[in-house]
Amino acid sequence: MGWVAGARLVSASAEAGALGLLASATMTRDELEQQIIEVKERTDKPFGVNLRADAGDAAERIDLLIRHGVKVASFALAPRPELIARLKDAGVVVIPSVGAVRHAEKVAAWGADAVMVQGGEGGGHTGAVPTSILLPSVVSAVDIPVIAAGGFHDGRGLAAALAYGAVGVGMGTRFLLTSDSSVPEAIKQRYLDFGLDGTVVTTRADGMPHRLLRTGFIDDLEKSTGIRQLVPTLRRTLAFKRMSGQSWPSLAKDALSMKRSSGRSWLQMTQAANTPMLLKAGLVDGDTGAGMLAAGQVVGLIDDLPSCEELVDRVVREAAEQLKSAAAQIIA
After folding, report:
1. What percentage of the chain carries pLDDT values higher than 70?
2. What is the pLDDT of residues 256-302, one digit of tens each?
3. Which of 260, 61, 297 is closest to 173 using CA atoms?
4. Phi and psi (nearest 5°) for 20?
5. Which residue in 211, 230, 246, 300 could disulfide with 250, CB within 3.0 to 4.6 Å?
6. Under 8 Å CB-to-CB from 17, ≥6 apart: which residues?
7. How far is it between the farthest Cα atoms of the chain?
8. Domains of the chain by range and CATH?
9. What is the pTM of this model?
């Protein structure tokens, strides 16, 4: 949700009764602080911040959350035990995202308060195990609350996740496609045009499996060779350096930290510089000819752009009706 889950969408989600999460991976530390302040100006409801556990300045970003009284810290990768302890000591709820049972067991042992499980249907970086198999496996393996993600967009999905033993669901693509999302309207309409076969999982963007809309740009990227990708990759790295204001030593430190935590090769680390700029081109600039659009498979089931309030009310109502109907059938 980089470039998407900013103050506007997070505050609207919080006001609607959901837990909005600021996507900080594409923000500088100063931008993150500004966004936290803006959310607090827009709403007094709880919200959280999603952090990169492998960021070189992760500890400093955690300081921001604690200083500004942010209620929840979520992580795309497992945070180190000392980071979890520091957040918990400050009263911040820690919710890492995982894609495997062993990862859930690890963060639970380290003191995480809950865990978000994303199955292969999810958008952006994703795994290969579907939510319907991964979710009950994790629920059985840990004794902390489990949130389900990857493949959810309506109340039927929420009801199913609750039946599996989850305490709730996380939705990215569905909230991207709301009237409160800052994604350009023309891009939202493009999302609505895609069917269930409209996404593809590729490693060409940054060396890791990434679920994206199947656009002409992605088709070309899939066909390109490593040599053909090198010059555009270096160009985007320079653009990201200018945009983020980071020095070369800072970027190198960030890359080394990411490599150690993820096990990526140096080639994959070079490709990783593509991600923020390619997402910005598509989701901010609206240029699908030079950018990528992350999307979960549920994009093929979405056909409208409700407000966050309308969406949350609809999902809760549908889930209650679905659970009531299922209970009546069991009793009968």
Report:
1. 85
2. 555 455 555 545 545 555 678 788 888 999 988 778 899 999 999 99
3. 297
4. -75, 140
5. 246
6. 45, 312, 316
7. 67
8. 7-183+303-331 (3.20.20.70), 199-283 (no CATH)
9. 0.87
And the tokens for 189?
A: 């309409």
The two tokens of residue 107 are 């963060």
CA–CA dist 181, 321 (Å, integer): 27
Task: Take residue 310 and report the two structure tokens written for it.
Answer: 């309308």
Torsional class of 246: left (φ above 0), alpha (ψ -120 to 50), beta (otherwise): beta
CA–CA distance from 236 to each of 57, 167, 248, 292, 294 (Å)? 21, 40, 14, 13, 18
Dist. CA 62–CA 49, nearest whole Å: 10
Q: What is the pLDDT of residue 220?
A: 83
Q: How far apart are CA 133 and CA 118, in angstroms?
A: 11
- Looking up tokens 């033993």 gives 165
Rg (CA), the chain: 19
What is the per-residue pLDDT across 307-319, written as a single tens digit (0 to 9) for each?
999 999 999 999 9
Distance between CA atoms of residues 251 and 116, nearest Å: 29
- SS3 for 60? helix
| 171: Cβ contacts below 8 Å, ≥ 6 apart | 149, 152, 153
- Distance of alpha carbon 92 from alpha carbon 132, whole angstroms: 30
| Interatomic CA distance for residues 24 and 22, integer angstroms | 6
User: Looking up tokens 């890492």, which residue turns up?
Assistant: 96
**Tokens representing residue 332 in the block:** 């009968």
